[in-house]
Amino acid sequence: MTLFRSIIATVFLFLFLLLSVLPASAHKVRVFAYIDGNSVVAEGAFSGGRPAKGATVTAENAENHAVLFTGKTDAAGICRISLPKSYWRSPVSLLITLSSGDGHQATWILDQAESKPIKTADAPAPAASEKEAPTAVSTDDDYTPSASFIREIVREELARQLVPVQRELAVMGQQKPSVQDVVGGIGYIVGLAGLIAYMNARKKGEKG
Amino acid sequence: MKTKSVTAFGCALATLLAASMSHAHFGMLIPSTPRLEQQKKDLSLTLSFSHPFEGQGMNMEKPTRFFVAAGDKQTDLLPLLQEEKCMEHRCWSATYQVKRPGVYSFAMEPAPYWEPAEDVFIIHYTKAIVPAFGDDVGWNTPLGLPTEIIPLTRPFGNYSGNSFSGQVVINGKPAPDIEVEVEFYNEDVALQAASDYHVTQVVTTDANGVFTFTCPQSGWWGFAALSQADYTLPDPKGNQKEVELGAVLWVYMDEWQSR
Predict the structure, then answer these.
(1) How many interface pairs between A and B have CB atoms less than 8 angstroms apart?
(2) Taking a C-beta distance cutoff of 8 angstroms, is the pair B74, B67 a contact?
(3) Confidence class of residue B21 from pLDDT cuts 50, 70 and 90?
(4) Element (DSSP H or E) covering residue A97
(5) What number of other Cβ atoms are within 10 A of residue B208's Cβ?
(6) Is the model's pTM score more than 0.90?
(7) What does R_g of chain A's alpha carbons equal in angstroms?
(8) Cβ within 8 Å, pair A32-B101
(9) Which helix (DSSP H) or strand (DSSP E) does residue B243 occupy?
């Protein structure tokens, strides 16, 4: 009886695992992101080309994974998030994650160094569209830079120098085990446990 | 001693003969990478007319057409072509910036190549299909070339040992019972053929113009479906000569990766 039950349990578990693993690859979702003006545009689609509608888009700092902003894709699978002014002062590489809600997700690294030089002055947004007074820069000859201004410059410099490191980290961060890996791993454990249960049951059966 | 030198001479002669034997000509359009990914965004293409397995080049005139098709957009790439040297002969290359996801079909129409050894002109309409940034739609859209191979197997994301199927069309109609020559791009001539027969392998199309071939090695595989044009061209002496048309497609087979 115990033997029968453990076999049934094992079979069901394997079936469940198979079913839960298969659709994931068939519905592979992808995301492509780029900077347009002062917005981040993320486009989500499934393999075969269907747009990923109503998917959650998260943009995080690729370095420290702090979530900067989130949004949702429209009917065409497109999500447009305008970047805050604070972003352009010290742009970082962004890790864009699109989750289609059914456990499928894809990521895209928006490498700031590639699309634009990391320099506040070159950022198109504040200069072009927003008439912002120039920040703490003074034109006085005997001007001594304030601590906060120096801090700002150091921060920019650091950001620029750290881009390759950030990129590496982001890539490493991307190689997290997928849901499939985890489920597969659990499957192995459960399967082995089932096998042991079966063996035990058989031993008991032989004894009794 | 004498026997040895005779043997050596014989070997040298055999090698010479083998080398001079006419093997299949292939229009070549080889992308620098089989697919574009987030970490691999640069793409250049090399166009040549060569013997891909033996690494023998021929001088190639500037192609008459070179373009890329993605979705319903075609872009002329002829102005991007730069003269280069491949396999010690004239060839052409271009760098193309892919900015968006898509399936990019590159195609070239070479200038007719006069081959006195075969007493024929050769025109190989050559394609290579490069997917970018996850897109996987449109790889089986015909480009409308006078003759071309329409992939039935998705022409990317395959392993060595996978079979590749395609349909050969001439003027848009399936081409039954024609020969498709298959050759591996033996980069740096690292591999040696088991025999002369192995250099160019051959498969024929069925009644629907369909062929299937299993690629046993990772790398670029060229398929050249050959037919005869319904027109002739004047050779350098002004005599009308037949024209061999080729529908060539290059497909990349990947190796399994270990964790």
Answers:
(1) 25
(2) yes
(3) very low
(4) strand A94-99
(5) 11
(6) no
(7) 26
(8) yes
(9) strand B240-254
